[in-house]
Amino acid sequence: MVTALLALAAGLLSLRFMPQLPPPWVWGILLVVSGIVLRTRLWPLAFLSLGFGWACLQGHWALQDRLPLELDGRTFWLEGQVQGLPSVQGNVVRFELVDISSRHAGLPSQIRLAWYGGPQVRAGERWRVAAKLKRPRGLVSPHTFDYEAWLLSHRVGASGTVKAGELRSPAPAGSGWRDRLRGRLLDVSAQGRSGAVAALVVGDDSGLSPADWQVLQATGTVHLMVISGQHVGMLAGLLYGLVALAARWGLWPSRLPWLPWACTLAGGGALAYGWLAGFEVPVQRACMMVVLVLVWRLRFRHLGVWLPVLVALDVVLIYDPLVALQSGFWLSFLAVAMLAFVFRGRLGVLRWWRTLGRAQWSMSLGLLPVLLALGLPISLTAPLANLIAVPLVSAVIVPLSLLGTLLLGVPLLGETVLWIAGGLISMLFGCLDVLAAWQPAWLAPSMPLWAWVMVWLGTLVILLPAGIPGRALGWLLLAPLLFPPIDRPEPGQAEVWVMDVGQGLSVLVRTAEHAMLYDAGPRYGDFDIGERVVHPALRGLGIAGLDLLLLSHADSDHAGGALAIQRGLEPLRVVSGEPDRLPAALGPEPCRSGQRWEWDGVRFALWRWNEAKDGNGASCVLLVDAGGERLLLTGDIDVAAEQALLESAMPIRARWLLLPHHGSRSSSSEAFIEAVGARDALVSRSLHNAFGHPHPEVVERLRQAGIGIHDTAISGALRLRLGRFEPVSALRDEQRFWREK
To answer: Record's GO cellular component, any one (predicted)?
Structure first.
């Protein structure tokens, strides 16, 4: 049975690693093959092919439910019902619509919308809205969050922005109760932590601030402020333990067998908590796991500890194979597997505090290779933080939050209990703040496969039971963490990344021993592209610090992420064409025309138009020359600045040209394009942007000049290797079945 479960899981999990889905006729062949080999010695292949075929079929259905390409970027009137809990962040209301109806055929069954300055939207309501829809698409930069995979795993077929709307009908009786309960919880004082209480009770994390998330991430405690398998499991364990203790102390009725009742109450409590949390995918996973463990405890304990883990894994994947695209899926199941590996078969009984300490140490070390593979931050303080936070949250704060919620109908009593829970949460965040300030989260550089395998083997060896010889060897296998192998350009060459940052700009230029960043990406309110995209990309590429942060000018789409880059990478110098408009904390220096320097055989030169009358014209222009192959970075200069540049002593002929002002009509004059003489032009912009960049006239001008166009909105992040005279490479060329080209 274990072999069959493993083979089935392998087939289901293979979807995560598919570059593209096989055509439908392949699935029919797999079914025939499965039937043939099922009665032979190759029977595990039958389960493998069945799992693979089912996963591919689910992936195909999800892709077919996306917004058709011909409707991409258009505005439609549509009607649908609000699903889940809408979130409010600043003046933006975000929600999902299902049960879609419209005059236009082909709209997907689930749409994720954002309404800027919109009214209050409640779960279960039916709205008619005019929304500009686009196909599921995210920024594709190296080593950053894959938003397209996340959208597909949640079966979101389109995203969009609401232009206008009207409420057609309120939530039906019996629905929308979670939304009302959330509102009730947010109205409670809870010592300023009502948002965290709502996150623990109904699974709504929108009440946590960006600063809260940073602290949780830095201390490896994100899992504690969302309803995860740990909370569901601890509640079930608490109920089971209360019945067991009552039976041991003679307080349980003798006519009722305590074990069946303990398992039933624990399972019922877990399912009730899941129902309260809306049965989101992580909660479904947790409830399924708890129920299987309880059934194993009641009837099948003789079959071993690995069987319920494998059954739960297969059941979750059969229910929704696309869940394998979510990082939380891998972390939760591998955490359970790691605990089973560490504690199964160990001799002796540990005291509770030693058990908790070993569990936290094992989890932190054992999940290290998983975090590396997923490109997630690694908290160096996680073992200590979780040692404090896990028992406090799971055994005290969550039960108090649930108890206070149940007692809200009793005047003052429920509010008092929630006030105590909020105070404990505040105390916890105070401790976590100290740990986060002491040791921020570490973003490790991306590793080649051989280095990752070394680290994975090292963690397994270290976690072997005491007394097994050779455990010290595991520490040597962790050497790639201290000395990560980084692919650096050779002397005389430069590696250039034009990041996919949407409607903005950020370009990394790295030589053998130096690195600079030209612009830091945009910032939209609390959403900082510098923090969310640029910084993780640079750390994943092995950039531990910057020699220079060059901000062409002070507009938000170019300098919005500068403070986040300064906090994370501490550049030695900050230079800008508009230093007076930048935050003083950056300590910017003015860009000076004629300034030149050389790094590792690569030459750099700056230019700025001193007569500029606005920020765009004052952009600092950078020329990079690696072995005769040149790149010209132009910021947002306009036609007047281009003419001034042509009349200057700055040499501007280049093999590669970053289009000024994202291809705006006010830039890229015919004279300028001819003078640069580039063979290829690079464009950094967002798809369907409101400015119409790049302008059709500019595109036509480039085509008439025989210049190739490489667009981050179409191709994702672009990579050049100056000095090699090679074609540009694009991240969207790396095939993923969920990713559009």
So the answer is: plasma membrane
Identify the CA nearest to 616 among candidates 559, 561, 698.
559
Domain 69-175 has CATH 2.40.50.140: yes
pTM for the predicted model, two decimal places: 0.89
> Structural domain boundaries of the chain?
2-64, 69-175, 449-482, 494-733
Q: Which two tokens stand for residue 18?
A: 């598919």
Tokens of 600: 């590792």
Which of 445-454, 546-555, 651-660 is least confident?
445-454
492-523 pLDDT, tens per residue? 999 999 999 999 999 999 999 999 999 999 99
DSSP assignment, residue 707? -
Task: Please report, for residues 13, 297, 331, 334, 346, the alpha-carbon distance to residue 340 in angstroms, rounded to integers and kept in the order given.
Answer: 21, 15, 14, 10, 10
Question: How far apart, in whole angstroms, are the C-alpha atoms of residue 502 and residue 134?
Answer: 14
Cis omega (within 30 of 0) on the bond before 694?
Answer: yes
Question: Which H/E stretch holds residue 186?
Answer: helix 177-187
Q: Are 701 and 151 in contact, with CB atoms under 8 Å apart?
A: no
Strand partners, 94: 87, 114
Q: Which of 367, 378, 443, 440 is nearest to 143 (CA)?
A: 443
Burial class (CB in 10 A: 0-12, 13-18, 19+), 725: exposed
Dmax over CA atoms of the chain, in Å, equals 98
Per the CB < 8 A criterion, the answer to whether 267 and 236 are in contact is yes
CA distance 657 to 187: 55
pLDDT at residue 688, rounded to an integer: 87
* Distance of alpha carbon 169 from alpha carbon 561, whole angstroms: 42
Cα–Cα distance, 563 to 559 (Å, whole number): 8
Helices (H), 522-669: 529, 535-540, 556-559, 562-569, 639-647
Would you state the CATH architecture of domain 494-733?
4-Layer Sandwich (3.60)
| Alpha carbon distances (Å) from 256 to 212, 239, 249, 300 | 46, 16, 15, 21
- Cα gap 623→28, rounded to integer Å: 56
Residue 574's φ and ψ, nearest 5 degrees, are -125, 125
Residue 409: how many CB atoms within 10 A of its CB?
8
